Every structure is written in C-alpha cells, then in structure tokens.
Amino acid sequence: MLTIKRRLLLSHLLVILLGAGTLGLYLYFAAAGQIVDAVGERVLDNARVLAAGLDGDELDAVSRHSTPGAAARMEDRLQRALRGNPDLVGAYVAEVTGTDVRVVAATAPGAVSEGSGSLTVDELALLRGGLKAATLGDIAAAGAEGNDLFALAPIAAAPSRYVAGVRFRASSLQESLRTLRLSTLGGLLFGVLAALVLSRLLAESLQRRIALLGERCRALAAGDALPPNQVAIGDEFDRVIADFDATAQRLREAAGGREDALTALTAANAKLETRVEERAREIEDATGQLKIEIENRLQVEALLAEAALTDALTGLLNRRAMLEMLEQAVQASRGQGGFSMILADVDHFKHVNDTYGHGIGDQVLMAAARELESLHGDSRHAARWGGEEFFVLLPGTGLMEACRRAEELRARVERMPLQPRGLRVTMSLGVAELQPGEPLEDCLRRCDQALYRAKDAGRNTVVIARGNLFATMS
Ligand SMILES: Nc1nc2c(ncn2[C@@H]2O[C@H](COP(=O)(O)OP(=O)(O)OP(=O)(O)O)[C@@H](O)[C@H]2O)c(=O)[nH]1
User: What is the domain-level CATH number for residue 15?
Assistant: First the structure.
C-alpha cells in the first residue's frame, strides 16, 4: 500500500525531476551557448587585433627575405600577441597567392610551422576561397575532432594576400563546458536532495498529524477519552484536529445528556409501572369487595323477598304471596285441570289467648302451621291467611279429594298435643273448587262462606261449597 508519506515523496520527486531537470537543461544550454559565443568572439577579436597590428611591407620583407632579421622580428611580434592571451596556442601569418597558401611567419614552437603542411583542411579551404572579413572556424567541429579552434583575419594593408591566423586551445573550451555541466548537475542534485529532505519533513509532519487524527477517531468510536493534544495550531490541518476535538466534546456532552434523560425516563417508567400495579391491585381488591357486597346484597334481597312473602311467626307463605300463587294457578287452570282450596280457622282462639296468654297462642298457631305442612308435604302451598286463619291451595285436586284432606287436617289439629298439657284446640274448615270460568274472588268468597257455615255448624267441622250449595262433612 502506498502511504501518504510515500505518495508525497514520489510526487515531489517527479515534480523536481521534471521541473528542475528541464530548468537545469535550459540553463545549461543557455550558459554553454554563451560561453561558446564568448570564446568565439574573443578568438575572432584576437585575430582582428593581430591583423590590424601587422604591416604589409614588413610581411613582404619577411616573405622575400629581403630584410635581414625581419622574420625574427615578425615572429617576436606574433609571440607578444600570444603573451596577452594564455588560451591562444599559436599565431601565424599566411600568404595567399591564388590557390597557393604558405605560412610566412608563426610562433615557435607552435602548432603552426612555416609552409602550408600544418594548416588544417578547413583553414586551407577558407584561405583559398579568398577571405574578405575576419572568420571563425567551426567550434563544434574543433571540439569534436580534438583540433584547436582557429580564427582568420585579412590584413588590410595587404588585401587578399596576407591573412593573420590565431589558434585557440579547444580543450580549454571543453574544460569550461565540462565544468558548467558538473556545476549544473551538482546544483540539480543538491536541489533534488534539499527538496527530498523538505518533502520528507512535510510528509512526516502530515503523517504524524493524520495518525493523531486517526487515534482520536478510534478513541471517539470506542467511547474512550481523547488522548491529550499538545500540538499548537499552526496550519489548516491543526485547525481540523482542534475542530474535531471540539466536535467530539460536544458529542460527548450530548450523549451524556441523553443518558441522563434515559435514566430519568427508565426510573419514571419503573415508578409508573409500580403505581399501575398498585392501582390494579386496588381495583382487584375493590372488585372482589364489590362482588362480596353484591352477593351479600343479593342474599339480603333474596331474604327480604322471601321475608316479604313469608309469615314471620309460622314460616308459611303470607296472604299476599298466596294471592299471587292463586293468580298463577288460575292462569294455569285454563289449560289444565282446576284446583281446590281450604280455608281453616282456629276455633275460639281469643279464649286461648285470654286463658293461656299470647305466647301460648303463638305456639298453637305454629303447631297448626306444621300440621298444614305435613298435610300437603311442603310449605309452598300453605299460607297464613291472617290472625288465626289459614289457607291451603290444592292444585289439580278435585273437590272430594280436597274435602278428604280437609277432614284429615281437622282430625290432626284436634289430636294435636300442646303445652300446657290438656290444652286442646279445634279448627273449622271451608272447602271449595274453582269452577270453570269462575272468577277467583267468587271461589274465595264461596270458600269463606263454607268456613262460616262450619263455624255456624258448631265449629270443628268441614263444610264443602258445591257451587252455591254447602254441605257439612262432620
Ligand atoms: N296469640 C295470638 N293471638 C292472635 C294473633 N292474631 C290474632 N290473634 C287473636 O285471635 C283472636 C281472634 O278472636 P276472634 O276473631 O274473636 O275469634 P275466636 O275467638 O277464634 O272465635 P271464633 O273464631 O268465632 O271461634 C283475637 O283475640 C286476636 O287477638 C296472633 O298472632 N297471636
């Protein structure tokens, strides 16, 4: 994987190589051109100066050996011309006649000797071509072939006949160019190294802070405290780290607030649940209590209802309950068989009360009630009609059977053992049967008349109401 550090180093290296390399090459070639131009100009100037300082007559004298010592003086002048310029390796004067070229004077021991054998092909070509102005030899060719660079200048005093020539050491030029190349290369290398060092420092600085930011991101994700940041804000990256720290701090504060709120909410929920459970228990208890109360009330109501229909002394039905039962019996008799009834009254009961007291009277009434129940088998069809008077309903029972039952009841009451010993009571009874279509009141009235007739007949008697006719049974 290419790290940021390596990427930065690589990119900087490429930029440096491309930028600095291009610039270095451009500068090298510009400087090399200037050096070459300056050298050429200087060599050319040397040739011009030399040519300007020579006299045609003197050269004639040297050429024809007409004046003794002329050659030595000429050579001395050429030698002096060289002394001022150490880069020049030789100077000469050539005489050009048509295509014939001959060196008439030269520095000694130089590269040029008298005659034409030591002149290069290029020099000979220029000289034979008829030199009109100062001319420089081919610098590039001189450098490549290891020859000296030359420059030629016609001597004005002897147009087209004498030409001054100088030779420049080409190796000196090559040396200058080599030095330039080395300097350029050295500068380039130094620049690359310096840039690499700076680039490395920058990359390390960035890498260090990226690592610092990464460390903080991991700490924030794991919920740990951020490691201390000692870096002072120096650039945008430091500002990013500082902003990150501030954001992390705000996030922590917000998370803390949320946790507190969650804790409070959880506590409130638990409290609410407890209260709901308490209320549910209370409601359950209240419901249970209410149920018990309702049951009690129903029992009381049932008892009250029963009490409303029951005679408190004897436990038999009271008159109202019996009247309701009679209404139902009348309704039922329309589809089925009819019913009979007995009306019974204790004889001389006032005398009992008066003689034995009301308590004994009550005992007599209760004993009579038990006889009515045993006659019928249950207490549902026997009622206390009022005072010492009783009523017996006999559903589905005909008049004769009712009469038999009444007689049995009369006999039972007569034999009824009572306290105090010797107390005896009797009972008078009237019997009637509901006639088809007869109103209940009429039947009750007939039965009541039968009872009165039983009283009138001497008591302890059963009288039957057969229609409006009455018959005494005993
Ligand atoms: N001990 C007691 N006496 C009652 C009760 N209800 C009515 N009596 C009495 O019953 C008596 C009825 O008397 P009467 O109507 O004169 O009838 P009687 O004495 O039985 O005479 P006859 O019916 O003609 O035989 C009255 O003295 C009433 O006070 C009761 O619940 N207990």
Answer: 3.30.450.20
